[in-house]
Amino acid sequence: MITRVVFNQKGGVGKSSIACNLAAVSASQGKRTLVIDLDPQANSTLYLLGQTDVKDTVADFFEQTVAFNLFNKKFEDYIHATQFPGLFVMPASAELDYLERKLESRHKIYKLRDALKKLEGAFDQIYIDTAPALNFYTRSALIAAHKVLIPFDCDDFSRQALYNILGEIQDLKEDHNPGLEIEGIVVNQFQPRASLPQQLVEALTEEGLPVLPVKLNSSVKMKESHQAHQPLIYFAPRHALTEQFRELYAHLQGERAGAGVHA
User: Please, what are the domains in the chain?
Assistant: First the structure.
């Protein structure tokens, strides 16, 4: 079982889109795949379930860890099936915000890691979507994960923030999770005909940063898939951006993507 965190402290870089679409590709290839939504905005939850008013959320799981006698549920009881075969989600809720201080004060930072260990064998891949902040939940996810993907949206502000993110991940790795691997920087919302994105990506590559070779182009089709509550592989299986997600997924698996048909 491989657990990946998708994290960037900058908002609007496509964390939820990347987590959900990679997870959907995984499920479409026959792997039991789970998305854990740790962002109180619950974008991944809405994307995959079509609603955010859901019972038994990841917030309920965390609340159970500080209210011992009020719950009698296992971690897997908070996992919901989506309409897509093999794809599951542990939904978020706004309650995560209210719980954070209580969880920090009671030192529950390892609870997610311990719970995921009990899921070993139940899922092939887990993708964790995080809020745009290095908060309690993001640190919990990074401590629990094997790998981390960092979305990058080809903006100079994002470039400056990237250096801080890499340093913070390295600190957390040294202190809490020595096995954590920065799997790569995912170039998202890329505009291949614009000069600035090309220059920024080339500069990062020249600096030796782990920029992944597959870039995700900017496309209105992504917003349409959000509105339809269907990841691209189901919503637009022949679209160019869908093929890029297939290629990115194959690269992360160490495989070669099959030839795709571009719309």
Answer: 2-209 (3.40.50.300)
Cα–Cα distance measured from residue 4 to residue 129, given in angstroms and rounded to the nearest whole number = 9
Question: Cα(118)–Cα(15) distance, rounded to whole angstroms?
Answer: 26
β-sheet with 147-152: strand ranges across: 80-81, 87-90, 33-37, 125-129, 2-6, 147-152, 181-187
CA angle 104, 40, 132 (to 5 degrees): 80
What pLDDT does 64 receive?
Answer: 87
* Helices and strands per DSSP (H, E), number in the chain: 11, 7
Question: Rounded to an integer, what distance in angstroms lies between the CA atom of residue 21 and that of residue 249?
Answer: 9
Going from the C-alpha of 249 to that of each of 27, 66, 119, 125, 262, the distances in angstroms are 11, 37, 22, 12, 17
As a whole number of angstroms, the distance between CA 196 and CA 48 comes to: 33
Instruction: Check the CA dihedral 57-59-62-68 and report its sign.
Output: negative
Tokens of 184: 């790569």
pLDDT of 263: 31
Which CB contacts under 8 angstroms, 24+ apart, belong to 202-206?
Answer: 203/159, 204/152, 204/159, 204/162
The answer to whether 30 touches 87, Cβ cutoff 8 Å, is no
Question: CA dihedral defined by 77, 83, 87, 92, rounded to 10 degrees?
Answer: -50
Place of tokens 């920090």: 104
Mean of pLDDT values over 237-245: 97
Residue 128's pLDDT band (cuts 50, 70, 90): very high
pTM of the model: 0.93
Angle between helices 136-144 and 156-176 (to 10 degrees): 60
